[in-house]
């Protein structure tokens, strides 16, 4: 299973905390984590293994969307800043639209991300 991680600048610290809180789960179940470039750098500095794409404004959101439509991403956790302006909003909208088109789960805040992790934990315990 591959989970893509994306966070707007004001949410990057929240993303690092979220992943740290659940790192044992990700490691135990051999979940591959990929991220946009800057988010991935924050996660690496926190000691996590992550495959980095380009930074979001430079095409990282599009790279993740491309992998998703190829069936290489199973879930996206994207901590968005709904109050900020983002130069790559078109890419963000495209990513979210493609999640709907391809029926890929998308969590856009920590509460939804937590539900995703809890759901995966439950699902994997039943297997």
TrEMBL record:
Q: What class of enzyme is it?
A: lyase
SMART domains membership: MGS
Q: Which domain of life is it from?
A: Bacteria
- One Gene Ontology biological process: methylglyoxal biosynthetic process
Name of the protein: Methylglyoxal synthase
* GO MF terms held by the record: methylglyoxal synthase activity
Please state which protein family the record places this protein in: Belongs to the methylglyoxal synthase family.
For this UniProt record, give its keywords in alphabetical order, as a comma-separated list.
Answer: Lyase
Q: Which Gene3D superfamilies match?
A: Methylglyoxal synthase-like domain
Q: Which reaction does it catalyse?
A: dihydroxyacetone phosphate = methylglyoxal + phosphate
HAMAP family, per this entry? Answer: Methylglyoxal_synth
Q: Which gene encodes it?
A: mgsA
Q: Which residues form the MGS-like domain?
A: 1-127
Q: What does this protein do?
A: Catalyzes the formation of methylglyoxal from dihydroxyacetone phosphate.
């Amino acid at each position: 299973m591959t989970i893509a991680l994306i966070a707007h600048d004001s949410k990057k610290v929240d993303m690092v905390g979220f992943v740290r809180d659940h790192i044992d789960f990700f490691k135990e179940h051999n979940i591959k984590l990929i991220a946009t470039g800057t988010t991935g750098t924050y996660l690496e500095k926190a000691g996590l293994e992550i495959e980095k794409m380009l930074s979001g404004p430079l095409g990282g959101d599009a790279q993740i969307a491309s992998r998703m439509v190829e069936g290489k991403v199973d879930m996206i956790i994207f901590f968005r800043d709904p109050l900020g302006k983002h130069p790559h909003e078109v890419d963000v909208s495209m990513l979210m639209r493609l999640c709907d088109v391809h029926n890929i789960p998308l969590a856009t805040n920590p509460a939804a991300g937590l539900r995703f992790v809890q759901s995966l934990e439950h699902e994997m315990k039943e297997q």
